[in-house]
Amino acid sequence: MTDDSFLGLDATTQAAAIAVLGVVLVIAGESMSSAADPEYDPTVYGIGLVMVVYGVGRLVWEWLGD
């Protein structure tokens, strides 16, 4: 594909790192959640979920393109 390196990391490594960070955010969001807490903000969970979807999608795109 194209040269998508950034800070010395290729696109596959970047996508994997984004997916892993997304999983960490999803886990953190799940641990902060509470059905009885009206102050719960699902932003952390949502951002993590988007990061996982993007990271996995980008990895699939890279693997199919080679």
Give me the secondary-structure topology.
Blueprint: H1 11-32, H2 43-65
Helix pairs in contact: 1-2
Sketch the topology as an H/E string, one letter per element.
Answer: HH
- Radius of gyration (Å): 15 Å
Number of helices: 2
Mean pLDDT metric: 84
Beta-strand content estimate: under 5%
Largest sheet: none
Distance from N terminus to C terminus (CA atoms, Å) equals 7 Å
Contiguous low-pLDDT stretches (5 residues minimum) are none
Instruction: Tell me how many strands there are.
Output: 0
Kindly name the structural category. mainly alpha
- Overall 3D form: elongated
Q: How many separate structural domains?
A: 1
Helix content: 55-70%
Walk me through what this model shows.
By secondary structure, the protein is mostly helical. The protein has one domain (11-65). It is 68% helix and 0% strand. Helix 1 (11-32) packs antiparallel against helix 2. It starts with 10 loop residues before the first helix and ends with a helix.
Short structural summary:
This protein is mainly α and about 70 residues long. The chain has two helices and no strands.
Which descriptors apply to this entry?
single chain, elongated, mainly alpha, 2 helices, 66 residues
